[in-house]
Amino acid sequence: MKRKIAVYAIAKNEEPFVDRWFSSMREADEIVVLDTGSVDGTVAKLKSLGAKVYEKEIVPWRFDEARNEALSCVAEDIDVCVATDLDEIFSPGWRNALEKAWTDETRRARFKYVWSFLEDGSEGTVLWLDKIHARRGYKWHYPVHEALVREGGGFDAPNACITVDGMTLFHHPDKTKSRAQYLPLLELSARENPTDARALHYLGREYMYSNRWQDAIDTLKKHIALPGYVWPEEKSASLRYMGRCYSNLGQPESAEEMFLNAVMLCPHLREGYYELAQMYHIRKQFALSAFFAARGLEIKNRPDAYMSESDAWNGQLERVLRSSRDALESGQ
Known about the structure:
Blueprint: E1 5-11, H1 18-25, E2 30-35, H2 42-49, E3 52-55, H3 63-72, E4 80-83, E5 88-90, H4 94-101, E6 108-114, E7 126-134, E8 138-141, E9 147-150, E10 161-171, H5 182-192, H6 197-209, H7 213-224, H8 232-248, H9 252-265, H10 270-282, H11 286-297, H12 316-329
Parallel strand pairs: 1-2, 1-4, 2-3, 6-10
Antiparallel strand pairs: 4-7, 5-10, 6-7, 8-9
Helix pairs in contact: 5-6, 6-7, 6-8, 7-8, 8-9, 9-10, 10-11, 10-12, 11-12
């Protein structure tokens, strides 16, 4: 059965990316963009290519309201909606892969997302996004790092969510754009959702990115202490981030404790072993470094969760193992 598919996006001053993005998205039946205040040629270029462009400034700015406004502009007779950004492109043939996977029971779909690349052009951070959904019944939530949720609450049935093989979205960001708006929006998200794991985890991580080590620790402690919270992989990531913060605060014992706790919580994740191997290598504790590097390398399957980190999978762990073993052989 042929289904009508729409791509929708938000944009502001994205003129350099328009041609590349539109070419990638043109397999859709409809391409909708909400422009939120461009002062360059974004709007004119999109219209010239055939996109349906709507214009509205979102004040105060928040990503969920912008995406919900964009979604409201999608035609009512569309069956499947695909949310993207203008700094992203799909692998060719993505529509065919989506149509083959989508069934009458499907409501949501996830696909491979290459968020970053290594210097040699190979894939860096890879995760799986679920930004494909049925036309009705969904809205975006959270001021930043927004997520799709069901209108009225609740969860989709297991058979309503699918994974689309052969559909990959590649992220090629404008590195000149500032992340300055992220932190205040994440603080707003945590105020609006004070017991929400997602809000606290992202805020703690952003504090870490901003070198606000103690703020990150305090926030991530709240995250891992949430009652009834059961996603161990995200908890393990929070423990690793806390370990990095303690290291930067000159508290090596606390850092070591956090990294060890991360591994004990999720022994199937390579990232915790990488942190320990690196830490012990820096301390010139080469036997421990080699031990944890070797243990990490025993894990062959990279998880598809967003907190998977490229450094644990890009050859760095192998280099730490070789260096540690060389140091041991030389009597260091």
